[in-house]
Design goal:
The complex is a heterodimer of chains A (418) and B (436).
Chain A lengths: L2 E6 L11 E7 L6 E4 L5 E3 L7 E4 L1 H26 L14 H10 L5 E3 L5 H6 L4 E2 L8 H14 L6 E6 L6 H12 L4 E7 L2 E2 L2 E2 H4 L14 E5 L3 H18 L2 E6 L18 H11 L1 H11 L5 H24 L19 H7 L8 H17 L22 H10 L11
Parallel strand pairs in A: 6-7, 6-8, 8-9, 9-13, 12-13
Antiparallel strand pairs in A: 1-2, 3-5, 4-12, 10-11
Helix pairs in contact in A: 1-2, 1-9, 1-10, 2-7, 4-5
Chain B lengths: L59 E4 L4 E5 L5 E5 L31 E4 H15 L3 E5 L15 H5 L4 E3 L4 H13 L3 E5 L10 H9 L1 H4 L9 E6 L14 H4 L6 E4 L3 H13 L4 E6 L6 E4 L12 E4 L4 E5 L3 H14 L4 E5 L2 E3 L3 H11 L2 E8 L4 H13 L8 E5 L8 H7 L3 H11 L2
Parallel strand pairs in B: 5-6, 5-7, 7-8, 8-10, 9-10, 13-14, 13-16, 16-17
Antiparallel strand pairs in B: 1-2, 2-3, 4-11, 9-15, 12-14
Helix pairs in contact in B: 1-7, 3-4, 8-12, 9-10
Classes of the chains: A alpha/beta (418), B alpha/beta (436).
Chain lengths: 418, 436
């Protein structure tokens, strides 16, 4: 049964320490429950896993909690965008929450996830290895295979989930990355979140074969009902085992997005409102988990409703906190363009780092550089900033540097040093 | 906090002595502020350097909106006609949204024209060319049924069909290559990059195939392709969607690059680009699509290689293009109030530069400020600086000042984004320093 527990919430990383909420709906009950997935899995060149999924009350309630939070957050993002507090492009994930929570349940914090721009909710669920925010469609998949390569290289028994959409499935770089992963047996799992529309183009108008789980050809694939969190969990677990032994596998998550491609897209010019509301009624991921919870008597309807209200409050608090945060100062303009220690001359002439290193640091650095250049030996790592021996130019001595900086004074961001 | 200095490329406070020229006059002490009035109509001779394919049957009309008409016939002969009664007074765009023009009562022959937004002007140009030549087709992501992510191709697919306005999958490298292949065999495709940044995926096709095939095939294949799309820094679109590809593409031999900035030149350049037998990259800007202007009803095509005189002046030449044109005009307002007389030229043609117009201006003013949105390293401004220095060094009284964006990925934070891009106040400061 649900219990009252106080739990600190790691909501959004910058606010982690300060947002607290009284959380109902947690339990430590781990009696196994077996649930059948809504649909069977379909395999391509592989025996699909069983439809019976083992879960626990604890897990089901956590699914509900996380998905309710994600849903609420996306709706809030919608209003914030319309209020012009979120700018640029805003791609919302509501409808697809099951993919994120299902995946989280199946993997460890050491596994990597990389995704593109429809990524707000993936972040909410995961551990430290979540790489997100890629704007160029499909470009994150080769990166994902690179993560898998590093995992294989360091033999750490972890996997990478490289996520992409049905639109990105037609990118050539995907097939290049898949070929390499398969060639070298990399622990890469390519997850196609098929929400059936690439912005305004339906999948049947963009792909000759919309069976994305088969597109790997030589790589096995699995088609999963992406609106069923338990099916996603089963598939991800299965895929992880497979990838660690046999190399890449493609998972196609059959899912749906309620919003348009982004907030600039109404989402109704290329599909009917009936379709959207139909899916909401029949396949909504949160509703499905709710039904499971109620049918197994893990919570009452009222408790679930109360919880949703709390989530709303929590998100509102987070928004209030975000509104209070200061905008970055102009001195941050060059932060992180380069890694520090790249080279004193480069730093100053490009004005790429506002915070001037101290004289001691510069002197030390020069000393090290001069030694390295005279020895012509192995590369050195200056404050973790990379090897200088690679660079062809000679770092000037102190006086020379001052002179060169004097000439470039208009390019130096901070004239006070001279 | 003022971050102006890093933007000023190189400047020394002592002006170069004039060696070969008659007296220079320095800017006068500030007279009372005078409103921006259109300069007197000058008979402005236009150097036309259209590339004509003598084997084609196209007759190219380059109708310059100010004073001169040139008709270039397919046999290469040139007839010019000065038609002063059709000219319109030079217009000054002083703010980002051009206000409605007062009708020029003097010209009886010109019709009042019609008002539209820049993306509509692009569409009009595109539609007229598709109507005129059945080989013209469009391909890109969501250009057909969706109507284009910026509505440039809205309504064309129902009119011309799915093959002529082709919705491609998200495969920039391949559909650009496909367009080039189609162009080699006689079609005239227009490739739309949903955002210019996506065309980086097609860089190999654009560089090796598009740019070089005419050369490497010994002239056997021409690539009459137009590659267009919105680029530039928008409103907090993030680093990957705020790219200025003109600086990356400018070295590719064999292509032409133009940047439109008003509905008038957008339509004219679109038509010219489609009619050109060379590959043309047409750079549009995300923030300029909703500019409104009144354009002529009659058909017109602009010259691809020509710069546009936005505001004639005497003291300093300000060269700019695309969105920075509006920042420059905003700065020009301030400068005029302070007593300066800047000459503003929208270079429009990014490759090749219109050194004729630019040169004439430099010879007149002897001072140059370049204002661009590219990054400082390797941008259009850098090339233009080199070009002007090489060709007009003797006419310069001071080193060229090049104002460009900072060499940083464009930040999402609004305040930081403003700092990366040149602002009108920085332009004013640069001109004041230059003209001291």
């Amino acid at each position: 049964m649900a219990q009252l527990t106080r739990r600190s919430v790691n909501l959004l990383k910058p606010f982690s320490a300060s947002v607290f909420a009284t959380r109902h709906l947690t339990t430590s009950d781990t009696t196994p429950i077996t649930v059948e997935t809504s649909l069977p899995f379909t395999g391509h060149k592989i025996e699909p896993p069983s439809r019976s999924v083992e879960t626990t009350p604890k897990e089901l309630l956590s699914f509900f909690r996380d998905m309710a939070l994600m849903r609420r957050m996306e709706i809030a993002a919608d209003s914030l965008y319309k209020a012009k507090l979120i700018r640029g492009f805003c791609h919302l994930y509501d409808g697809q929450e099951a993919v994120s929570v299902g995946m989280e349940a199946a993997i460890t914090k050491k596994d990597c996830i990389i995704t593109a721009y429809r990524d707000h909710c993936i972040f909410l669920g995961q551990g430290q290895w979540v790489l997100r925010g890629h704007g160029i469609v499909g470009a994150q998949v080769p990166l994902g295979c690179g993560l898998a390569f590093a995992q294989k290289y360091s033999k750490d028994e972890n996997v990478t989930f490289a996520m992409y959409g049905d639109g990105a499935a037609n990118q050539g770089q995907l097939f290049e990355a898949l070929n390499m992963s398969a060639l070298w047996d990399l622990p890469a799992i390519l997850v196609c979140e098929n929400n059936h529309y690439g912005m305004g183009t339906a999948e049947w108008r963009a792909a000759k074969s919309p069976a994305y789980y088969k597109r790997g050809d030589y790589a096995p694939g699995l088609k999963v009902d992406g609106m069923d969190a338990l099916a996603v969990k089963q598939a991800c677990k299965f895929a992880k085992e497979h990838a660690l032994k046999n190399g890449p596998i493609i998972l196609e998550m059959d899912t749906y997005r309620y919003h348009g491609h982004s907030m600039s897209d109404p989402g109704s010019t290329y599909r009917t409102r009936d379709e959207i509301s139909g899916i909401r009624q029949e396949r909504d991921p949160i509703e499905r988990i709710k039904k499971l919870i109620l049918s197994h008597d893990l919570a009452t309807e009222k408790e679930l409703k109360d919880y949703e209200k709390e989530v709303r409050k929590e998100v509102d608090e987070a928004i209030a906190k975000a509104k209070e945060c200061a905008l970055p100062d102009s001195s941050e303009l060059f932060t992180n363009v380069y890694k520090k220690g790249f080279g004193v001359e480069i730093l100053q002439s490009l004005g790429s780092d506002q915070s001037e290193p101290s004289d001691t640091q510069i002197n030390n650095r020069e000393l090290v550089v001069q030694n390295a250049l005279s020895e012509r030996s192995t590369p050195i790592d200056l404050a973790g900033g990379g090897s200088l021996a690679r660079h062809q130019h000679v770092l000037p001595t102190a006086t020379h540097r001052q002179q060169s900086c004097h000439v470039n004074r208009h390019q130096c961001p901070n004239n006070s040093r001279h | 906090m003022w971050l102006c200095s890093p933007l000023i490329h190189s400047y020394s406070s002592t002006s170069l002595s004039s060696r070969h020229r008659p007296n220079r006059h320095n800017p006068p002490p500030s007279p009372p502020p005078h409103p921006l009035t259109p300069p007197p109509r000058s008979s402005f001779s236009v150097k036309v350097a259209c590339l004509i394919d003598l084997s084609s049957n196209l007759e190219v009309h380059c109708i310059e909106r100010k004073t001169s008409f040139f008709f270039i016939h397919c046999d290469g002969s040139l007839t010019s006609g000065l038609n002063l009664s059709n000219s319109r007074s030079a217009r000054l765009s002083t703010n980002a949204v051009a206000t409605k023009q007062d009708n020029v009562t003097a010209s009886t022959a010109s019709k009042p024209g019609h008002e539209l937004l820049l993306f509509e002007a692009l569409r009009e140009g595109l539609e007229e060319e598709m109507e005129r030549d059945p080989r013209v087709c469009v391909m890109g992501e969501d250009v057909g049924h969706y109507g284009g992510s910026y509505k440039v191709t809205k309504g064309l697919a129902p009119k011309y069909g799915d093959l002529r306005v082709l919705d491609t999958p998200i495969a920039e490298n391949s559909f650009t290559g496909m367009a080039i292949g189609a162009a080699m065999t006689g079609l005239r495709p227009i490739v739309e990059g949903m955002n210019m940044g996506f065309l980086l995926l097609a860089f190999n096709q654009i560089s090796n195939n598009c740019g070089m095939l005419h050369y490497t095939s010994g002239g056997q294949f021409k690539i009459p392709i137009v590659i267009r799309g919105p680029g530039g820094v928008g409103r907090q679109l993030g680093a990957e969607h705020s790219q200025r590809l003109e600086s990356y593409f400018q070295s590719i031999p064999g292509i032409q690059m133009v940047a439109c900035s008003t509905p008038y030149n957008a339509k004219g350049l679109m038509k010219a680009a489609i009619r050109s037998d060379n590959p043309v990259i047409l750079f549009e800007h995300v923030l300029l699509y909703n500019l409104k202007e009144r354009i002529p009803d009659e058909e017109y095509v602009l010259n691809l290689e020509e710069a546009e005189m936005v505001r004639p002046g005497e003291h300093v030449t300000i060269l700019t293009y695309s969105r920075m044109r509006y920042h420059v005009m905003q700065a020009a307002k301030t400068l005029v109030n302070k007593g300066y007389d800047p000459e503003v030229i929208d270079i429009r043609s990014l490759k090749p530069f219109d050194l004729y117009t630019i040169g004439n201006s430099v010879k007149k003013t002897h001072r140059v400020v370049i204002v661009e949105e590219c990054m400082r390293t390797g941008g259009i401004g850098a090339s233009l600086t080199a070009s002007i220095n090489e060709n007009f060094h003797d006419y310069l009284d001071a080193p060229i000042v090049c104002l460009s964006s900072q060499d940083v990925p464009t930040p999402y934070a609004g305040t930081l984004e403003e700092w990366t891009v040149v602002q009108p106040a920085q332009i004013v400061a640069a001109v004041e320093q230059l003209c001291r």
